[in-house]
Amino acid sequence: MARTVAASASSEKPKKRHAEIVAAAAKVFARRGYHGASTQDIADVLGIRQASLYYYFESKDAALEAVCAEGMEDYARRAQQILRGAESGADKVARLVFHHLAPLGERLDYTLVFLRERRFLPEPARKRIRALELKYERIIERIIQQAVDAGEFRADLDARMATLALLGLGNSAAAWYGREPGVTLERVTRDYVDLLVRAFRKGEAPVFRITH
Q: Could you tell me which of 199, 195, 8, 209 has the C-alpha nearest to residue 101?
Protein backbone atom coordinates (compact mmCIF):
# COMPACT_ATOMS: atom_id res chain seq x y z
CA MET A 1 0.00 0.00 0.00
CA ALA A 2 2.78 2.43 0.90
CA ARG A 3 4.53 1.67 -2.36
CA THR A 4 1.30 2.33 -4.33
CA VAL A 5 0.79 5.70 -2.69
CA ALA A 6 4.43 6.65 -3.23
CA ALA A 7 4.27 5.61 -6.89
CA SER A 8 1.10 7.63 -7.39
CA ALA A 9 2.63 10.72 -5.80
CA SER A 10 5.75 10.28 -7.91
CA SER A 11 3.74 10.07 -11.14
CA GLU A 12 1.80 13.20 -10.23
CA LYS A 13 4.90 15.36 -9.88
CA PRO A 14 5.81 15.44 -13.60
CA LYS A 15 2.17 16.20 -14.49
CA LYS A 16 2.05 19.03 -11.99
CA ARG A 17 5.35 20.45 -13.23
CA HIS A 18 4.22 20.22 -16.84
CA ALA A 19 1.01 22.09 -15.94
CA GLU A 20 3.05 24.79 -14.21
CA ILE A 21 5.24 25.24 -17.27
CA VAL A 22 2.28 25.42 -19.67
CA ALA A 23 0.67 28.00 -17.37
CA ALA A 24 3.89 30.05 -17.42
CA ALA A 25 3.95 29.87 -21.22
CA ALA A 26 0.32 31.02 -21.35
CA LYS A 27 1.16 33.97 -19.11
CA VAL A 28 4.09 35.05 -21.28
CA PHE A 29 2.27 34.65 -24.62
CA ALA A 30 -0.79 36.49 -23.28
CA ARG A 31 1.31 39.49 -22.21
CA ARG A 32 3.95 39.63 -24.91
CA GLY A 33 2.31 37.93 -27.88
CA TYR A 34 3.92 35.11 -29.81
CA HIS A 35 6.44 37.28 -31.62
CA GLY A 36 7.35 39.29 -28.56
CA ALA A 37 7.87 36.25 -26.34
CA SER A 38 10.86 33.95 -26.02
CA THR A 39 11.60 30.69 -24.28
CA GLN A 40 13.91 32.71 -22.01
CA ASP A 41 10.89 34.75 -20.90
CA ILE A 42 9.06 31.55 -19.99
CA ALA A 43 12.09 30.24 -18.12
CA ASP A 44 12.37 33.53 -16.22
CA VAL A 45 8.77 33.25 -15.00
CA LEU A 46 9.55 29.77 -13.70
CA GLY A 47 12.92 30.74 -12.27
CA ILE A 48 14.76 28.04 -14.22
CA ARG A 49 17.49 27.95 -16.85
CA GLN A 50 16.36 28.24 -20.46
CA ALA A 51 18.03 24.92 -21.25
CA SER A 52 15.83 23.20 -18.65
CA LEU A 53 12.74 24.31 -20.51
CA TYR A 54 13.68 22.23 -23.54
CA TYR A 55 13.11 19.11 -21.46
CA TYR A 56 9.40 19.93 -21.80
CA PHE A 57 9.21 21.86 -25.10
CA GLU A 58 11.55 21.58 -28.04
CA SER A 59 10.66 25.05 -29.32
CA LYS A 60 8.56 28.16 -28.77
CA ASP A 61 6.11 26.78 -31.34
CA ALA A 62 5.66 23.64 -29.24
CA ALA A 63 5.00 25.72 -26.13
CA LEU A 64 2.35 27.76 -27.96
CA GLU A 65 0.68 24.62 -29.28
CA ALA A 66 0.62 23.15 -25.76
CA VAL A 67 -1.14 26.24 -24.41
CA CYS A 68 -3.75 26.17 -27.19
CA ALA A 69 -4.30 22.43 -26.89
CA GLU A 70 -4.70 22.56 -23.12
CA GLY A 71 -7.55 25.04 -23.40
CA MET A 72 -9.36 23.23 -26.21
CA GLU A 73 -9.09 19.80 -24.61
CA ASP A 74 -10.62 21.18 -21.42
CA TYR A 75 -13.54 22.72 -23.35
CA ALA A 76 -14.20 19.46 -25.22
CA ARG A 77 -13.99 17.38 -22.04
CA ARG A 78 -16.56 19.52 -20.26
CA ALA A 79 -18.85 19.64 -23.30
CA GLN A 80 -18.76 15.85 -23.58
CA GLN A 81 -19.91 15.58 -19.96
CA ILE A 82 -22.79 17.95 -20.72
CA LEU A 83 -23.77 15.93 -23.79
CA ARG A 84 -24.09 12.79 -21.66
CA GLY A 85 -26.29 14.50 -19.08
CA ALA A 86 -30.04 14.16 -18.74
CA GLU A 87 -30.84 17.87 -18.46
CA SER A 88 -33.08 19.80 -20.83
CA GLY A 89 -31.61 21.45 -23.92
CA ALA A 90 -31.90 24.87 -22.29
CA ASP A 91 -30.04 23.69 -19.20
CA LYS A 92 -27.33 22.13 -21.35
CA VAL A 93 -26.89 25.38 -23.30
CA ALA A 94 -26.66 27.22 -19.98
CA ARG A 95 -23.91 24.86 -18.82
CA LEU A 96 -22.08 25.20 -22.15
CA VAL A 97 -22.09 28.99 -21.88
CA PHE A 98 -21.00 28.84 -18.23
CA HIS A 99 -18.04 26.56 -18.99
CA HIS A 100 -17.10 28.52 -22.10
CA LEU A 101 -16.99 31.81 -20.18
CA ALA A 102 -15.54 30.48 -16.91
CA PRO A 103 -11.91 30.67 -18.17
CA LEU A 104 -12.29 34.46 -18.44
CA GLY A 105 -12.13 34.45 -14.66
CA GLU A 106 -10.07 31.33 -14.03
CA ARG A 107 -7.70 30.95 -17.00
CA LEU A 108 -7.85 34.19 -18.97
CA ASP A 109 -4.28 33.80 -20.27
CA TYR A 110 -5.19 30.56 -22.06
CA THR A 111 -8.25 32.15 -23.67
CA LEU A 112 -6.36 35.21 -24.89
CA VAL A 113 -3.51 33.13 -26.30
CA PHE A 114 -5.87 30.82 -28.13
CA LEU A 115 -7.90 33.64 -29.66
CA ARG A 116 -4.98 35.91 -30.57
CA GLU A 117 -1.90 33.81 -31.12
CA ARG A 118 -2.83 30.41 -32.58
CA ARG A 119 -2.67 31.80 -36.11
CA PHE A 120 1.11 32.05 -35.72
CA LEU A 121 1.55 28.31 -35.29
CA PRO A 122 3.17 26.35 -38.14
CA GLU A 123 0.61 24.75 -40.45
CA PRO A 124 0.84 21.19 -39.02
CA ALA A 125 0.27 22.52 -35.50
CA ARG A 126 -2.60 24.73 -36.68
CA LYS A 127 -4.27 21.69 -38.19
CA ARG A 128 -3.94 19.76 -34.94
CA ILE A 129 -5.48 22.62 -32.97
CA ARG A 130 -8.22 23.02 -35.57
CA ALA A 131 -9.06 19.33 -35.15
CA LEU A 132 -9.54 19.95 -31.43
CA GLU A 133 -11.73 22.97 -32.21
CA LEU A 134 -13.89 20.90 -34.53
CA LYS A 135 -14.28 18.20 -31.90
CA TYR A 136 -15.60 20.81 -29.46
CA GLU A 137 -17.87 22.36 -32.08
CA ARG A 138 -19.36 19.00 -33.08
CA ILE A 139 -20.24 18.19 -29.47
CA ILE A 140 -22.06 21.52 -29.06
CA GLU A 141 -23.80 20.95 -32.38
CA ARG A 142 -25.02 17.52 -31.20
CA ILE A 143 -26.37 19.02 -27.97
CA ILE A 144 -28.35 21.63 -29.88
CA GLN A 145 -29.56 19.14 -32.50
CA GLN A 146 -30.79 16.80 -29.77
CA ALA A 147 -32.91 19.63 -28.35
CA VAL A 148 -34.27 20.36 -31.84
CA ASP A 149 -35.12 16.68 -32.38
CA ALA A 150 -36.79 16.53 -28.97
CA GLY A 151 -39.03 19.45 -29.89
CA GLU A 152 -37.58 21.78 -27.28
CA PHE A 153 -35.82 24.06 -29.72
CA ARG A 154 -37.32 25.40 -32.96
CA ALA A 155 -37.63 22.85 -35.75
CA ASP A 156 -36.11 25.32 -38.21
CA LEU A 157 -33.06 25.99 -36.04
CA ASP A 158 -29.83 25.23 -37.89
CA ALA A 159 -27.69 23.49 -35.25
CA ARG A 160 -24.45 24.41 -37.01
CA MET A 161 -25.31 28.11 -37.22
CA ALA A 162 -26.54 28.06 -33.62
CA THR A 163 -23.23 26.50 -32.55
CA LEU A 164 -21.23 29.20 -34.30
CA ALA A 165 -23.46 31.87 -32.75
CA LEU A 166 -22.86 30.47 -29.27
CA LEU A 167 -19.10 30.31 -29.80
CA GLY A 168 -18.92 33.73 -31.44
CA LEU A 169 -20.84 35.33 -28.62
CA GLY A 170 -18.75 33.59 -25.98
CA ASN A 171 -15.41 34.36 -27.62
CA SER A 172 -16.30 38.02 -28.10
CA ALA A 173 -16.50 38.52 -24.34
CA ALA A 174 -12.73 38.05 -24.07
CA ALA A 175 -12.24 41.29 -26.02
CA TRP A 176 -14.11 43.47 -23.54
CA TYR A 177 -14.61 41.60 -20.27
CA GLY A 178 -13.07 43.51 -17.39
CA ARG A 179 -13.47 46.89 -19.08
CA GLU A 180 -17.23 47.31 -18.55
CA PRO A 181 -17.81 48.85 -15.09
CA GLY A 182 -19.88 46.66 -12.80
CA VAL A 183 -20.24 43.77 -15.25
CA THR A 184 -19.52 40.48 -13.52
CA LEU A 185 -18.89 37.13 -15.13
CA GLU A 186 -22.12 35.87 -13.55
CA ARG A 187 -24.09 38.65 -15.25
CA VAL A 188 -22.46 38.03 -18.63
CA THR A 189 -23.23 34.33 -18.35
CA ARG A 190 -26.84 34.94 -17.34
CA ASP A 191 -27.47 37.47 -20.11
CA TYR A 192 -25.82 35.36 -22.79
CA VAL A 193 -27.80 32.28 -21.78
CA ASP A 194 -31.00 34.32 -21.88
CA LEU A 195 -30.21 35.64 -25.37
CA LEU A 196 -29.35 32.23 -26.78
CA VAL A 197 -32.14 30.21 -25.20
CA ARG A 198 -34.74 32.78 -26.26
CA ALA A 199 -33.44 32.54 -29.81
CA PHE A 200 -33.32 28.74 -29.85
CA ARG A 201 -36.65 27.90 -28.20
CA LYS A 202 -39.86 27.02 -30.00
CA GLY A 203 -41.96 29.81 -31.35
CA GLU A 204 -42.25 31.77 -34.53
CA ALA A 205 -38.85 32.96 -35.68
CA PRO A 206 -38.71 36.60 -36.80
CA VAL A 207 -38.49 37.22 -40.52
CA PHE A 208 -36.05 39.89 -41.64
CA ARG A 209 -36.22 41.66 -44.95
CA ILE A 210 -32.80 42.88 -46.03
CA THR A 211 -32.82 45.95 -48.25
CA HIS A 212 -29.92 47.60 -49.99
A: 195
